[in-house]
Amino acid sequence: MAKAPDIQLADFQIAMPCANLIGESPVWSVREQALYWIDVEAKLVQRLDPGNGNLRRWTMPEVTSCIGLRAHGGLVAGTRTGFVFLDTETGGVTGIAHPEADIPTNRFNDGKVDRAGRFWAGTKNIANSPDATGSVYRLDRNCIAHCVDSGISCVNGIAWSLDERTMYLCDTWLRRIYRYDFDRETGIARNRRVFAELSTEDGYPDGLTVDAEGFVWNAHYDGWRITRYAPDGRVDRVLRMPVQHVTSVIFGGADLRTLFVTSASLRLTPEARGRQPLAGHVFALAPGVAGVPEPLFLG
């Protein structure tokens, strides 16, 4: 049995000292050369231009948990109750679909755009319990939402393999990363099975992305770390971060060789905050591998 790799201290820079409550859903816009991400509990969508340090923020009408870039400009987002568009010119928010309007104890969580231009997002129970009340939804280009899978406690970290035959998805409270067989043309994901399972020491699997070599990068909430997995599920590298709640990762920068990392400061005791003054900031790492461009929602 192969020995697990040692944990390396991450060589990081602070991309934005924002002290978010729950920084999440980072997305790099190749077109704008800018980083978008959210602060879930603060109801903020944020945009950083790393070239000049300019920061813009939009306040959403309710908790917002994930975003994707639109081909027509602006963003598609998952909020507490459903899917919306955000016009980044005017700040206007337009509702699209509310597939769980009849389940007030759930809210939307993480999401991402696939390479066919559809937006995916999943739900979780607001009690943060392992009850499997969450589902995975696909918002098609015609803006109709379809339930693809259910029976998940907390949907997180959706991403796809380079050949688009595999979809990865985290069930956070069960400490599992799943893989599905994926059909790009139909948008169907089936045959869910475990890709990786985390220990208590590892924390919980949160946001993830896939790099240009097909390896999976996963942020560990309550785990102080980021893990890079090989396509067969083998742990390739573990990076130790200076914050306990590492929430998500995305590749960006002019050459897509910068790994942007979001984090959270919510639910830390005063003592814990004192030990990790960088909690909630956005970090930038140079991991020595490139990412792939994020797709655009075509609806």
Give the class-level CATH name: Mainly Beta
Q: In CATH, what is the homologous superfamily?
A: TolB, C-terminal domain
Q: State the shape.
A: globular
Strand order in the sheet with the most strands:
1-22-21-20-19
Distance between the termini: 47 Å
Structural class: mainly beta
Question: Uncertain runs with pLDDT below 50, 5 residues or more?
Answer: none
What's the tally of helices? 1
What's the total count of β strands? 25
Key terms:
Neuraminidase; 4-stranded antiparallel beta sheet; mainly beta; 25 strands; 5-stranded mixed beta sheet
Question: What is the secondary structure topology, with strand pairs?
Answer:
Elements: E1 7-9, E2 12-16, E3 23-29, E4 34-39, E5 44-49, E6 54-59, E7 64-69, E8 75-79, E9 83-86, E10 93-97, E11 106-113, E12 119-125, E13 134-139, E14 145-152, E15 155-160, E16 166-171, E17 176-183, E18 188-197, E19 204-210, E20 216-221, E21 225-229, E22 235-240, E23 246-252, E24 258-263, H1 270-275, E25 282-285
Parallel strand pairs: 1-22
Antiparallel strand pairs: 2-25, 3-4, 4-5, 5-6, 7-8, 8-9, 9-10, 11-12, 12-13, 13-14, 15-16, 16-17, 17-18, 19-20, 20-21, 21-22, 23-24, 24-25
Task: Give your account of this protein's structure.
This protein is mostly beta strands and 299 residues long. The chain has a single domain, classed as TolB, C-terminal domain (Neuraminidase). It contains one helix and 25 strands. A five-stranded mixed β-sheet has the order 1-22-21-20-19, with no helix packed on it. Strands 2-25-24-23 form a four-stranded antiparallel β-sheet, with no helix packed on it. The longest helix has 6 residues. It is globular. The protein starts with 6 loop residues before the first strand and ends in a 14-residue tail after the last strand. The mean pLDDT is 96.
